[in-house]
Amino acid sequence: MPEIKPIFDAARAAFIQWGGENISERVAYVSALRKVIVKNLDSIVDCISEDTGKVNMEALNSDILPTLEMMKYYEKYAPRILAPKKKKTTLLFYNHDAYVEYKPMGVVLIIAPWNCPFQLALVPLVSALLAGNAVILKPSEITPKVGDLIGALCQEAGLPKDLVQVVQGGKDVGEALIQGRPDKIFFTGSGAAGKNIMAAAAKNLIPVVLELGGKDPMIVFEDADIDRAVEAAVYGAFAHGGQFCVAVERLYVQEPVLEKFVSKIIKRIITLNVGTAYDCDFGPINTQDQIDRIEEQVQDALAKGATLLTDIIKQGSLVYPVALKNVNHDMKLMKEETFGPLLPIMSFKTEEEAVALANDSPYGLNASVWSRDTKKAKRVVSQLETGNAYINDVIKNIGNPDLPFGGVKQSGFGKYHGAEGLHTFSIETAVMVNKNKTKREINWFPYTEELAKTVRGLITVLYTDLPLREKIKILLRMRRFIKTLQ
Ligand code: NAD
User: What are 324's strand-pairing partners?
Assistant: First the structure.
């Protein structure tokens, strides 16, 4: 177990310097880091693949690209996002200005998962740095090499000493770091760990963002482009072996096109290449726990009447894609996160039924709706209990840097990406400026009968539908009184 106090002492010392830098200095460091990442692209891809079992293409697509995209976006927009924002004042505050100012919080603890160890550490890390904080990163114990690599890349980019510290270890190290009292915790991982982290953070009222698991629905209407939807379903369910929080885990297809859809999906699934070679579509399942969970969910579904559409093939940690039909919401595979290559397919008749099925889940992370009728798709999205949604595509909506990302229900709370991604790592101070034009204020002592009359008059003028002429009479009387204050 590493000693926690020196880590926080060093982080706080680094913060004092860094928090005082102006935003263009911080942006310059991020831009240096972006260039270092591109320079080391090949070794980063290899390191991610080695630690996670991801095929190279997935390391590029789901780890490196979204990280670079987010960095580039913030380099351009962070100065504007973090600049003070002017706010409106109402008539009650006629002699005031108002604005919100964004200040660094201090030391941010980022606890990252194994499945996208580069993106899900670096995006919050860069966001926290740009907002002026020092960072302590605890990578997953499953992907320590990527954790060390992130530390090395920060060094190569010339980031100030101890501004980013990578602390390796598992749950116990994570717990000890929370006891070190960071100023904010940004957690990505399972719901079970999220609950423990929130409970530990509550002891010192440390604010947390929880980015947790999902059970994302894909809803395909009969008027969708079926061939495109089939491709997307196969990609969404099986990319990285389904080990994405935003993998398609439930597929709902409108009844008239179900059989056609199912036969196309079976044909497509059997062409998938599973293995570790460069041209494979996806690689191994990362832990035995996950393999056990996949098997348990399949057996539970089969015992309750589901039909297999593919063979069950397992070679060591390689689990081949499995699709099932005749599934229902009494089965675990429709309720619990799988995090593996399972695609359960269910039919629906009406728009209302599709919405009800999609919302019948403890989770609310991402969802996709497929139709050529965009108005209908948007109407459906408006009724979904989800933090994020995509019309006519899957997964990569989360890579649009200007959109806030985060879940609802058991998928967590709090947002990052976009402006929210910098504000979440900031102290937002709401400021009022009294322009100092009167000797005293109307609400100050002494409380007199005349003052009470004026306040009542104000309430009548502001919040009733009294005829304008009557309002003007009250305002003139008030003005005489207010003048006596000046
Ligand atoms: P996990 O919860 O097992 O571990 C995540 C991290 O938390 C690891 O670094 C682990 O060491 C640490 N940890 C665990 N318990 C802790 C505790 N009590 N105190 C402090 N730290 C603790 O998750 P995982 O297996 O690495 O990742 C898979 C899960 O993450 C899935 O549920 C997936 O859906 C979710 N996920 C969510 C998102 C999102 O953006 N919402 C993204 C990726 C993964």
Answer: 308, 344
- List pLDDT tens digits, range 73-92: 999 999 999 999 999 999 89
Cα 190 to middle of ligand 1, angstroms: 4
The single residue of 58, 211, 336, 337 carrying the catalytic annotation is 211
Ligand 1 centroid to Cα of residue 139, in Å, is: 10
User: What are the start-end ranges of the H helices in 410-448?
Assistant: 418-423
Where residue 485 falls among pLDDT bands split at 50, 70, 90? confident
Q: Rounded to the nearest whole angstrom, what is the distance from the C-alpha of residue 309 to the centroid of ligand 1?
A: 31
CATH number of 216-400: 3.40.309.10
Tokens of 313: 């093939």
Instruction: State the fold for domain 4-212+416-430.
Output: Aldehyde Dehydrogenase; Chain A, domain 1 (3.40.605)
**Domain assignments of the chain as residue spans, ordered by start:** 4-212+416-430, 216-400, 437-483
Which residues lie with the beta carbon below 6 Å from any ligand 1 atom? 111-116, 120, 138, 140-141, 170-171, 174-175, 188-190, 193, 196-197, 211-214, 245, 337, 339, 365, 407, 412
- Could you tell me which residues come within 8 angstroms of residue 141 by beta carbon, excluding any fewer than 6 positions away? 168, 169, 170, 171
pLDDT tens per residue across span 127-175: 999 999 999 999 999 999 999 999 999 999 999 999 999 999 999 999 9
DSSP E strand stretches across 62-126:
85-87, 96-104, 107-111
Query: 339 near 189, Cβ under 8 Å?
Result: no
Residues 6+ apart with CB under 8 A from 416: 123, 124, 127, 186, 209, 211, 404, 405, 406, 424
Instruction: Respond yes or no: is residue 470 known to be catalytic.
Output: no
Considering only CA atoms, give the Rg of the chain: 27
| CB neighbour class for 338 (10 Å; exposed up to 12, middle 13-18, buried from 19) | buried
Give 246 Cα–ligand 1 centroid separation in angstroms: 14
Q: Which two tokens stand for residue 464?
A: 């009733």
Ligand 1 binding pocket mutation candidate from 173, 186, 190 (most atoms within 8 A of CB): 190
Top mutation candidate among 120, 136, 138, 140 for ligand 1, by most atoms within 8 Å of CB: 140
Residue ID of nearest Cα to ligand 1 atom 12: 171
DSSP H/E element including 345 = strand 342-348
